[in-house]
Structure formats: structure tokens, C-alpha cells
Dimethylargininase
Amino acid sequence: MSVTAGLPAGPVAARPRATARHYVMCPPEHFAVEYSINPWMDPAAPVDAARAMRQWTELKGVYERLGHTVEVVPAEPGLPDMVFAANSATVLGGTVLGARFRAPQRAAEAEHFRRWFAARGHRELVMASRTNEAEGDFAWTGEVLLAGTGFRTDPAAHAEAQEVLGVPVVSLTLTDPRYYHLDTALFVLERGPGARIAYFPDAFSPGSRRVLRRMFPDAVLATEADASCLGLNGVSDGLNVVLPAEASGLVTRLTDLGYRPIPVDISELRKSGGGPKCCTLELH
Ligand code: ARG
């Protein structure tokens, strides 16, 4: 019996394999829910900032124990959502495409990250001219950039990303306000040709669902229960999959497919509509 027995045949026939990743995070030092720009946010509900910090620190520790590199951008007072670093830039092949936020409350985050990337020595640094919430709405499969729209990122920003980053962009339309960013409804498990993704079909328009079925016939389809705890806000290194602990159905499915799920407690950050992926910007 071969070692891949039990895994499906097809493009992803090999056993899932981890590759080293480079992440950028920002501590939830000034984390709060002071305004509401998505259905998860209730400014009247209490938020425990110390608990949010413990959850974030644990998430960072998980990446480091897996052998990944984590760089930290300092948090700025007055920007309670800055912990969601994934929204601030899309970085591919050394080119940084900086964000332009839809909500005025988050607008200033983009400039802090731009300065951080500039200080880090990035020369190819372009700021988006249209609303562009970066990895919140862009997912790199290794071949194409999947791009969400419907609530935040402007479809014109998809064309701009293609132009700036020089990679093919596939636009997908989100239709459920709870899944306002692409990364709340879809994530990449394995990159490369024959990439594998996980997603929640109901979060997408009928046409986008057909596109996803056509491009990713062996995708892992999440249930409502997995999606509604932000279970699709996962971070995979090709083998280890960090995801919210409540996504138990997804944990079982991924284990059966040969992945190693790493459930984390992200409950405090979820009060702002975020999960592990939102806190994690990847330098591709
Ligand atoms: N409160 C933030 C917002 O609504 C949460 C962002 C979460 N980030 C993400 N990549 N989905 O903008």
C-alpha cells in the first residue's frame, strides 16, 4: 500500500507538505470594537483586550513553533482594527500593493504599513488607487490571485492588482454580509498547480460558485457551521492548518485528507469579525 493511500487521486496526489512561510503581524495593543463596519461588530458588547492579546500571542507562537518567520509591525493608538494586518498589503514577488480601506475609521492603517514596508527596503511599493482591502480580499494560489468583491474591495482594484502584480486575477463576488471579505469564506490549503482550497459556497454568487467548481473540483466545501465561526479564516503552510477551534467539522475533514489542523482560540478577535488569517499578512 502506498503512503498516499486514502488521499484522492488527481492533481494533489502527493501527501500534503509544509513549506516555510514569512508572515507579518501587528499586536492588538489598541484593539477595541468602537464602531461597526461588519455584522460581527457590536460596539455595545464588551471586549477583553488582555484576552485578545493572549490569543494573538499564542497565534504568533504557533507560527514560530512551526518554523515560520514572523515580523511585527508596531500598533498605533486610535486604530483598533490594525491587528488585522492581512488587510494592509498584498505582497507578491517583492512587489507591495498597499491597501486603500473602504471605512474612514481604518484609512490611516494603510500609511503605517506603507512606511513599514518602505523602511524594510521595498522599492516596488504601489498604493492602491481604488478600495482594496488586500489579503482580506485577495488569495494567492501560486498561479492566480483570487479576488473578492461585493462588500469591500472595488472590482476596479482587481484589475489594478493584475496590472501592478503581473499575475492573473480571478474576480469572485461575495453575497452574504457576514462573509464580507474573501478570507472569511475561502482559503488556500495548498498552493501551486493543482492548488487546493477550502470554501463556503453559499457565501458566493451563483456565477462565482461555478467558477470555483470549475477551477477547484477537489476543493474542501465547508458547512454553514464551519463558516459561521469564521472557520474559513484559516492559514495553511501546505500541511499545518491554523483555524478557529470551533470549526470542528473542517478539522475532521482536513485530518482525513492528511492535513494537520491546529485549532486556536480567537474568540475575542472574532468580535470584530476577524480570525487567524485576518491577523496574518503573508509575504509571498
Ligand atoms: N473589523 C475589521 C473590519 O471589519 C475586521 C477585518 C478582518 N480582516 C479580514 N481579513 N477579514 O474591517
